[in-house]
Structures are given as C-alpha cells and as structure tokens.
Amino acid sequence: MDPMELIAFNIISNVGMAKSLAVEALREVRGGNKELAAEKLKEADGYMVEAHHSHAELIQKEASGEKVEFSLILMHAEDQMLSAETIKELVKEMIEMYNDLKENK
C-alpha cells in the first residue's frame, strides 16, 4: 500500500470511530448516562483530531510543491471526514435539546 493510501485509510478509520462514538454518546444520554456520553464525545474529538492531522499532512505536502495524486480513496476519506464532523456536531446539539426537554418536563 502506498503512503497516500495509508493516509487516506488512517483518516477513514479515525473518522469512522468518531462517528460511532458520537452515535453511542447520543444513545447513552437517552439511556440516562450523561457522564458516559460526555466521555464518548471527548473520545470522538480525539479521533477527529487524529484524522485532521493526517489530512493536514496532505495539505502541507501539496503546499510545499509535492504532487498529491487525486484518488477515489482520498475523496472518500475527505467525504467521511466531513460527514463525521457534521454528525458529531449534530449529536451535540441533539443532546442539548434532549437535556432541555428533560429539564422542562
């Protein structure tokens, strides 16, 4: 596997974990476990940071003049990264809404 594929798969793996943890956090809140939900969101943030580091590595290569080949795998990695970030932020908002609803009952 070439270095570009490794970076792309690193991104895909990390954002996949982040998405899963965000959804798990939402389920934990619905089950009444706010503390575990917060831990899962924090862990998801860590995976997103790792993915962003890998992505930044590619951007730095291109900015320094190194040719970064376009590939379907890299496009998929970036798509997954964007969707993971969106899902994570939406889950945070949903948790806040859920908590507000529970408080107002």
What does this structure look like?
GO terms for molecular function: metal ion binding; transferase activity. Keywords: Magnesium, Metal-binding, Phosphotransferase system, Sugar transport, Transferase, Transport. Pfam families: PTS_IIA (PF02255). Its cofactor is Mg(2+). This is PTS lactose/cellobiose transporter subunit IIA. This protein is mainly alpha-helical and 105 residues long. α1 runs antiparallel to α2 and α1 runs parallel beside α3. It is elongated and about 60 Å long. Helices cover 86% and strands 0% of the residues. The chain contains three helices and no strands.
In terms of DSSP E residues, the strand content is: under 5%
How much helix, percentage-wise, in residues?
over 70%
State the shape. Answer: elongated
Order of helices and strands: HHH
Number of helices: 3
Q: What's the total count of β strands?
A: 0
Low-confidence stretches: none
Mean pLDDT: 94
| Secondary-structure-derived class | mainly alpha
Modified residues (Phosphohistidine): 76
GO molecular function, one term: transferase activity
Cofactor: Mg(2+)
Protein name: PTS lactose/cellobiose transporter subunit IIA
